[in-house]
Amino acid sequence: MNSEKIRALLAGVDLRATTQRVALLKELLEQAHPLSVEKLTQGMGNALDTATVYRTLDTFEEKGLVRKVELAQGRALYEHAGEHHHHIVCTECGVIQDVDVCLPKSVQGTVQRASGFANVNEHALEFFGVCKKCA
Ligand SMILES: [Zn+2]
Ligand SMILES: [Zn+2]
Ligand SMILES: [Zn+2]
Known about the structure:
The structure is a single chain. This protein is of the alpha+beta class. Helix content is 39%, strand content 17%. The protein folds into 2 domains: 1-82, Winged helix-like DNA-binding domain superfamily/Winged helix DNA-binding domain (Arc Repressor Mutant, subunit A, Orthogonal Bundle), CATH 1.10.10; 84-135, Dna Ligase, domain 1, CATH 3.30.1490.190. It has a 3-stranded mixed sheet with strand order 4-3-5, with no helix packed on it. Strand 3 (86-90) and strand 4 (96-99) form a beta hairpin. Helix 1 crosses helix 2. The mean pLDDT is 91. The structure holds zinc ion (ZN) (3 copies). Residues 90, 92-93, 95, 131, 133-134 line the site of one zinc ion. One zinc ion is lined by residues 84, 86, 102-103, 123.
């Protein structure tokens, strides 16, 4: 992942390409799965402190660059937003991977009718199970 592409992504959402932002976005793009703040910080050789990582992730999230994946027990992971997709998490070892499965379109209509909302335009969904290694 070259830094020119990263700068272009930042410029695309009107963010200045500071050293911290470039380093964090690079790490998110290189890791193809959601990561905790601790893992992201370690992955960058602790070049940024956790507070900076949290603050930068908030900025990225506001700009739609990053998706926050909320897991049970208040755990949150972060990944580059990219295409809409879902995850499956192993309840034994915590491994998490992307799954190329989405809800049928009709579900949003059903939710809209049941809730009485004017519209339903997004959803987040994670699956949980036991991976082959842990089974
Ligand atoms: Zn497992
Ligand atoms: Zn993902
Ligand atoms: Zn979906």
